[in-house]
Design brief:
18% strand; 38% helix; 196 residues; 6 helices; globular; alpha/beta
Length: 196
Amino acid sequence: MISSFPIIFLGDTHGFIDDFVKQKEIIDKINPDFILSESLQNLSLDSKEKYEEVLKIKKISEMVLFSEIENLIGLCYKKNIKLIGIDIENFGFTKELQEKINNNQDITREEEKKIEHLLNRREKHQIRMIKNFKNKTKKPIVVILGSWHLREDSPLMKSFNNYKVIFPCDKENKLLFEPPQKREDVFYCEREKWQN
């Protein structure tokens, strides 16, 4: 049973399918106190006022469009669920890197090294945030992250013992990081880790 796991990791494709359909299904099943989201970056929507402010300004950051997580924000607001960002503002990217990434421009080797360093820093931050919120509720927490973070050998997956992972996969049950040739070739797979 899904609600017996203290952490439910849910893979996000960052838009190559409608991620919200699966998010809503899981949220409706569990009705958690907290949802932790990479896309919300460093924002915490833990009060009615904070929700209303974001819904009014309709802005997350330079790296995440409000439209990408508008449905999730609306659902959590309606259900009175605290939606907590577990990442760094603009994923820690400099203005120059933000521009290059947003415009699909080529990145230098030096910039690649910076991005690798930032990924490391971001994952450590995400792990700390998840550990912190896991102890604040008796209900499972739902953690929505880009699928890349859900690789079996990732630092994040190795940092926790009891969880379920629900991730976008292809017909061979392989974790998807990018769109397959056909959208209908996207499925959801599950794996779990349970240790005492």
